[in-house]
Amino acid sequence: MEEGDGMSEEMKQRVRETFSKNNEAYVQSKVHNNQSDLDLVTKWLKPNVSWSVLDIATGGGHVARQLSPYVKTVFATDLTEQMLENTASHLASFDNIHYVIADAEELPFLQSSFDVVTCRIAPHHFPHPEKFISEVQRVLKQGGYFLMIDNTASENDDLDHFYNTLEKVRDQSHVRALKISEWEKLLLKYDLQLEDQLQRKKKLPFSDWLNRTLDNDEDKKQVVRFVEDAEDHVKAYFAFQKKEDEIIDFSIDEWMVMARKL
């Protein structure tokens, strides 16, 4: 057993517990249901009716649902059985989506199986991002596309530390949002050539974001206190907005990237 494997399994169990408890919240989440975001996935990929697509950590199945009408088949995978069952019931009318319980770092598919691999708003839960990217490269066909969207950390170490700590206080299944520079190194290492990218700010409704993972009032207050104690330049960077002394929303960094397997 590799050093740290026990910790990795503990983190994955936290993911299962978090998403089992909150599976419907992720299906209904305004952030995850952002249609303009999903339309951009289709625009970038230009899907083909012959394609077989793998959507890793599908969650509420938003990307799988988006691509389903344009491709031959979609395999929607997730680590959490209850999440996958709930998503499958919501998407029962899409008969070309198949559901598989799978670990993003140990995919149960043969090499060169898919024309496209997607993963949206999930990699920050993965204990070993390098294993994830290695698996993406393995299951992609040569010339196939990998499209990822995820929250990212600032290249500034102080802002990186604040954001990842904030997420961890709110969500014990959070591992780490990587910097874009870290993702770029992994793509390069595994011969995934960057084709397109988009860096943007994503506004999050604070209450929706907070309540998606927490139901204990004291835990919620702890998150609020952590924000209130932050230095002014940190609050400014994340654009925390208040109304009548209550945090309404804030903004985080997000990266959308499309790469091709060489």
TrEMBL record:
Transmembrane segments: none annotated. GO terms for molecular function: methyltransferase activity. GO terms for biological process: methylation. Gene3D superfamilies: Vaccinia Virus protein VP39. Residues 54-147 form the Methyltransferase type domain. InterPro entries: Diverse_substrate_MTase, Methyltransf_11, SAM-dependent_MTases_sf. Signal peptide: none annotated. Keywords: Methyltransferase, Transferase. The keyword Transferase applies. It comes from the Bacteria. It holds the Pfam family Methyltransf_11. Belongs to the methyltransferase superfamily. This is Class I SAM-dependent methyltransferase.
